[in-house]
Amino acid sequence: MKVVHVITGLRIGGAETQLQLLLRYTRTEPVVIALTNAEEVADAIRKDGVPVHSLGMHNNRDFSAVCQLAELIARERPDVVHVHLYRATLYGRVAARLAGVPVVVTTEHSLLDGVIEGRPVTSAVRGLYRATEPLNTATVAVSQAVADRLVRWGVPDRKIHIVPNGLDLAELAEVGRHRERIRRELLLTDDTQVIGGIGRLTPTKRWDLLLRAVAPTLGPKRQLLLLGAGEDEGRLRDMAAVLHVGAWVRFLGAHINFHPMLSAFDLVASPSPQETFGLALLEAVAARIRVVYVASPALDAIGPMEGVVRVPEEEAALREAILGILREPPEVPPSPALQQFDVRLVAARIDALYQDCLSNKGKARPPKDGFSNSAQGGLL
Questions:
Q1: What is the pTM of this model?
Q2: C-alpha 197: how far from its chain's center?
Q3: Which of the 8 DSSP states describes residue 195?
Q4: Which residue, 31, 38, 30, 32, is CA-closest to 11?
Q5: Which CATH architecture has domain 169-337?
Q6: CATH code linked to domain 2-166+342-360
């Protein structure tokens, strides 16, 4: 089975790196097309042996790209076109049908209440999405929260399949062995406590809230390290300077393989009030690192775990929970519940969805599945 994946771009981000990971374990013959210039993740995908094409789009009004995309898809002659992220969803659905592809699958990675991919949802944004929905065979929602929002957008419930993001559990289990090296490279002493934040530096992630919460506690022996990049970095740097903690707040930038960096953290904190899934938090838990968070549908679905604390979106609550966990012993036991997120199982689920769509041409679907509260519930 040949599958063409169409994605808006391939810069470092959750949807982009999740696609790269899934492609390693799919049993299909994949090809990737990026609408914009292919960037860091494209190189990683190519190294894994998957072809990557780029259309080089520079703006959202380059409608000629639909015809270019349709021609490229037609040359590849796929059985399925799988689209990822908003712009690729609009262009890819239309292009796939122009190319005569029988099945189009959409994965919705980043739909929040009133926000999609960090931008406000307008009536035009929703209208275009709904206008292309009849061209779509099935939609993968990464959590129940995303599925519920899709239904409110007008996507038929019968088309929605809940399949969570995947984790490379074997790799994450080995993160601890990098700790000494990474902390040495970051010039951290053994007795320095590190609060980590992972994700794009955008206002919706509320890194400002985390900074204000932990600022009174920072110093030579406790630092805040933010792993990510984005337009909010300048504002956050200025805020750290105003709070007189600039020396103890460090911006590490975006890394395509950030898992070894996790080893430097004693705790991962997420102040974001909305998440479609919370992938970085699950990766931290899989690496046996403690977590304080405001929102994560994935962690909420699993239920209570040792070393994981949910708090309200409040400065004092964040600070209290972080300090409380840092006072406890650092050892976190492995969680069997994470087995259901193993990327091999997730990739198999996606492959099975392709086959089901091809067999039924979108006329039928299996029962809706999600992730369970135990490893035994799983994905199969």
A1: 0.89
A2: 14
A3: E
A4: 38
A5: 3-Layer(aba) Sandwich (3.40)
A6: 3.40.50.2000
